[in-house]
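Summary of Year 1 activities. Much of the first year was spent building the evaluation harness for sequence design. The harness presents a backbone, in tokenized form, and records the residue chosen at every position. We chose the following record to illustrate the format because it has been used consistently in internal testing since the harness was completed.
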């Protein structure tokens, strides 16, 4: 997977990506990161990349030309036009199924805005996807781009080590995970649930499934509407007082 990021803060992107799992995948050559400084493509003698908005109003708008030149430089060696994700609060909200779709691509281009926004004409020319990471206001698109690249990276074959990938295999059914425990068996007067010490795998699986259901009901009841529930699951949820089952 080749990530290309058009940004005014390329160091923020490089530093954000060079740690932990993604850093190791960069070193292994499983991932490539091309953080492109839009300012390098300004033809202005002061390296300006923004100007006042036509029609007036507060703030500045990123000009189309430096972005167009940066984009042309990025796509010049590609066989086909890549998906270009404009990270914007006006986009669809990013989720796991979008990450899975994006992970199929060979190249992904992210455009990070700053100031009030980006001249609409360059967006119309190059952008294929408008994507947000949620309804709160950030100072720019760099953290959202890093969030999306992180979510996509762990779906690229080989990026996760075996221990981590076993964990993502078990992320299923649209339920939250059961709680986890390790040594010591007693901490601050609290013991690990006895069933986990019993060695009875059937009982452990049943307990974990019930904990998943209970926790999802308490913390993310919205997920239960689309969860894959067995009749056993539904029986347990009814015992907990959940009534929204067909
Ligand atoms: C201050 C200008 N705002 C008018 C109310 C619009 C605005 C533009 C740019 C607000 C924030 C930003 C910077 N954010 C992003 O570029 C961004 C973002 C976000 O702020 N929240 C969630 N997802 C994303 S994706 C890109």
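For this record, the design step produced the sequence shown next.
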């Amino acid at each position: 997977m080749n990530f290309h990021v058009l940004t005014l803060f390329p160091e923020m992107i490089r530093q954000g990506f060079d740690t932990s799992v993604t850093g190791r995948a960069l070193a292994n050559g499983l991932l490539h990161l091309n953080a492109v400084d839009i300012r390098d493509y300004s033809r202005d003698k002061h390296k300006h990349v923004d100007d006042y908005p036509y029609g007036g109003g507060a703030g500045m708008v990123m000009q189309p030309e430096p972005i167009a030149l940066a984009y042309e430089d990025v796509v010049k060696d590609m066989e086909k036009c890549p998906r270009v994700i404009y990270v914007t609060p006006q986009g669809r909200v990013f989720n796991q199924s979008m990450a899975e779709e994006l992970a199929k691509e060979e190249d992904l281009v992210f455009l990070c805005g700053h100031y009030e926004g980006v001249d609409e004409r360059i967006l119309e020319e190059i952008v294929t996807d408008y994507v947000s990471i949620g309804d709160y206001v950030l100072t720019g698109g760099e953290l959202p781009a890093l969030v999306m690249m992180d979510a996509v990276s762990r779906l690229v074959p080989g990026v996760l080590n075996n221990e981590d990938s076993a964990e993502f295999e078990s992320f299923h059914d649209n339920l939250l995970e059961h709680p986890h425990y390790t040594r010591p068996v007693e901490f601050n007067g609290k013991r690990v649930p006895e069933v986990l010490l019993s060695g009875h795998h059937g009982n452990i699986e049943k307990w974990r499934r019930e904990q998943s259901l209970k926790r999802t009901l308490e913390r993310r009841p919205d997920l239960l509407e689309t969860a894959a529930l067995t009749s056993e699951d539904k029986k347990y949820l009814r015992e907990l007082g959940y009534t929204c089952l067909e």
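The radius of gyration is 23 Å. Quantitative recovery figures across the full test set are reported in Table 2.
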